[in-house]
Every structure is written in C-alpha cells, then in structure tokens.
Predict the 3D structure of the following.
Amino acid sequence: SRTPVTITITGAGGQIGYALLFRIASGAMLGPDTTVRLRLLEIPQGLRAAEGAALELQDSAFPLLSHVEITDDPAVAFRGANVALLVGARPRTAGMERGDLLEANGGIFGPQGRAINEHAADDVRVVVVGNPANTNALIAAANAPDVPKDRFTALTRLDHNRALGQLAAAVETPVGDIRGITIWGNHSATQFPDVAHATAAGDPVPALLAARLGGVDAAREWLDGTFIPRVAKRGAEIIEVRGSSSVASAASATIDHVRDWVLGTGERGWTSAALWSNGEYGVAEGVISSFPVTSEGGAWKVVEGLSVDEFARPRIDASVAELVDEREAVRALGLI
Ligand code: NAI
C-alpha cells in the first residue's frame, strides 16, 4: 500500500542492523507492494554508524523506502511503530554474572517496553533479537501492560533454520522439502530442536534416519550426540569459523519471522517462534517460549495436538525450567 508501514529497528547501527535494513527496504520482509518507513534507534555512540547506513540506503534508491529517521530517543523511535525489531542489547562481557546481564538488559528492555506501550501503533508487533532474547521480550511485555501479550515475540527462527539446514543435509533432501520441525524453549544452549514429526518430501524423518543410521537407537544417538548440539551450539561454531558472530543468517531469520507473522505461513506448514506461553504443551504460563506455530490473519497460533514422547518431554522441560529461572531472576531484580 502507499501508506507506509512504520518499522522501528533498535541497534540499527550494529552488525545485524546493517544486514537487516537493506533487505527490509528491498521488500523482502513485507512484500513488494508495501512501502516502508524506517526508524533507527541507537544509543549516542551508535548514531554515526546508523547515519552511515542511512546514507547507503539513500544510495540504494529502493522504490519502497519512503523515510529513514535516526534517533536516540525511544519515544521518537517507537511513535506509530507497526513493527518493532529489538536488536540492540547489552552483550555478556568477561566475568559478567547472569544477574548482571539480566539487569543491564532490563535497563534497555524495560524503557523500550514502556515506550512501545505509550507510542506504538495499536497493531504493533514486536520481535526481540537481542540476547537473552526470550527474557528480554518478557521484560518488554511486562512493561507494556496495554499491549496484548501475544504481540511480544522472541526470535528462534534462526535456530529453526539451522535445524532445517542440518536435517536437509543429513537426509539429503532439499531444505524446501522438509516440514514439521520445531524448536522448543529458550534461544540458548538448552533449546530442543525436535524432529519427531518432521517429514522430508512427505516421508517421516525418524524412519529415514533409522534406515540411514542402522536403527531407531542409532538415530536417537545421532539426534542426541550430533544434531541437537550442532544446532544449539551453531552460534559458537560460526564465531569459531568466521571469526565473527552470526549476522546475515540472524537478519535473514528475522525477516522470515516477521514475513510469516504478517503475511501468513500458508502452505509451508508450521515454523518456530517464541511466544507468550498460555500453558500449551505443559510449558509454564507467562514465559516467552519457543513453540511450533502457524500464522494466519496476522496472528501466531500454537500448533495443537502434537504428541510429545519420552525423548522430547525432559528436553522441553529442561529448557522451560531455564526460562522460569530467568523469569524469577528478573522478578527478583524488580524488572517485571
Ligand atoms: P552489535 O554489537 O553489532 O550491534 C548492537 C547495536 O545495538 C550496537 O550498535 C549498539 O550501539 C546498539 N545498542 C545497544 N544498546 C542499545 C539501546 N539501548 N538502544 C538502541 N541501540 C542499542 O551486535 P549484533 O551482532 O548486531 O547483535 C545484536 C544482538 O543480537 C546481540 O544481543 C546478539 O547476541 C543477538 N543475536 C540474536 C540471535 C537470535 O537468534 N536471537 C542471533 C544472533 C545475534
């Protein structure tokens, strides 16, 4: 449409911001018919980098890009925001305890949640990328009491895409023919990438793995010893090989998340996103946990009725327990 959609990107002067801006402006996120207005939020020391990216956006002459505004004021950044990508966060530095990390991020996501509450559009949709993403999303949601809880999400689509990539390679099927993967729980090393319901070109993945690896037990061993840790620790592998963290793949997953949320998951079946839990699948209520989800009419919906077997149950529970711990820690700090 000709009325631009307002998209706020925090940490826009950082690495993921730089990878995101050009894909959003090209139409990859909201489609080729939607004009976009970008609001870049940075802290003062990040403003020059954001200004530089804005110069390059101008030089890219994207027909869908109507405005770019840069600010260090959350009230300005979130005014009328329809989509908010919360990328900027406080990274863990050497010697930092978890409590310090959560507190520093509470100082970012609390005020941003309040600014969203006061200034964003009624239809605002928020995705938190900055780590610890699930709990940062919880802090923002708790500080935005007038915004429905289901509008606050955290990114686990990168984990989902990583799992797709690993599985496609393992069963030698094009990635586009794999369906039915789920990331459960936290975007952390405890996450559970679940392939129990996955299919490859229509064939059940557990049976394909058993046939390739020499039985059901061997397949489980591969899942437990190779697949799950490879997906869960992929971020560290990227740093080791590339000499820098995941950036383009993180931006790409963010684009996928918002596109599917707004435009729908359609024929491709379910994906993974971290949403406010209403207790589905025995996940504690009121944490932001990753689930199998579809989207229709601009709203995520948790896929119902999947069986959870004795391999999956303790792994889901362990990751959810970590989310509950993080919630108790931010509650004790008065951040929610
Ligand atoms: P970066 O350090 O290059 O950029 C972060 C930017 O955020 C910096 O420009 C900084 O000035 C800005 N910033 C810090 N505090 C801010 C605030 N209060 N308001 C606005 N801007 C602020 O980091 P990068 O590589 O872009 O990563 C960003 C975040 O994304 C990190 O927390 C990283 O851990 C996380 N991440 C999450 C993934 C996921 O799958 N959920 C995947 C990869 C990264």
Observations:
- The two ends are 38 Å apart (CA to CA).
- The pocket of NAI is lined by residues 10-11, 13-17, 41-43, 46, 87-89, 91, 108, 129-131, 133, 155, 158, 187, 245-247, 250 (CB under 6 Å).
- The longest helix spans residues 98-119.
